[in-house]
Amino acid sequence: EYWRRRLSRAESAWKDWVEKRKTSSAGTKGNTTSSGDDYSDDGDFEDHTMPGSTGEPQGLLERLGLLEEGPRRRQGRPMPDEDFNDWCRKKDRAKRKERHRQEEKMVRV
Predict the structure, then answer these.
(1) 2-11: long-range contacts (C-beta < 8 A, 24 or more apart)?
(2) What is the pTM of this model?
(3) Which long-range CB contacts under 8 A does 57-61 form with residues at least 24 apart?
(4) Does the pLDDT at position 77 exceed 90?
(5) How far apart are CA 63 and CA 44, in angstroms?
(6) Region Disordered: start and end of each range (predicted)?
(7) pLDDT at residue 95 in the model
(8) Angle subtended at Cα 92 by Cα 89 and Cα 98, rounded to the nearest 5 degrees
(9) How far, CA to CA in Å, does 68 sit from each of 38, 45, 52, 65, 74?
(10) What would you report as the CA-atom Rg of the chain, rounded to the nearest whole angstrom?
(11) Buried residues in 77-92 as b, exposed as e (16+ CB within 10 A)
């Protein structure tokens, strides 16, 4: 019963998140909103497995993309939004540098 409730909440949160991404502007590619709306703050996804559970719902949440990789989940708690936005900027900058490096290689060849 617990996991069924949890799963339905996760699915509805996922659908809301997808709808929000569709309606949000294309300029915010791959980043969260400044208020962190993409992450629920009511503890829905705090403890992903209970003691003695099989861990199956966690796998489902991972497949749905609801478990964020990286520093967002430090000890099961979301980091402050400004830290998370810095982390996203660093990742984006690294991707741009790598893309530029690849383009340089293509130009040389």
Answers:
(1) 2/50, 3/53, 3/56, 3/57, 6/44, 6/57, 7/57, 7/60, 9/44, 10/44, 10/45, 10/57, 10/60, 10/61, 10/64, 10/66, 11/64
(2) 0.27
(3) 57/3, 57/6, 57/7, 57/10, 60/7, 60/10, 61/10
(4) no
(5) 16
(6) 16-109
(7) 92
(8) 140
(9) 11, 10, 23, 7, 10
(10) 17
(11) ebbebeebbeeeeeee
* Angle at the Cα of 42 from the Cα atoms of 8 and 13, rounded to 5 degrees: 35
Q: Secondary structure of the chain in the HEC alphabet?
A: CHHHHHHHHHHHHHHHHHHHHHHCCHHHCCCCCCCCCCCCCCCCCCCCCCCCCCCHHHHHHHHHCCCCCCCCEECCEECCHHHHHHHHHHHHHHHHHHHHHHHHHHHHC
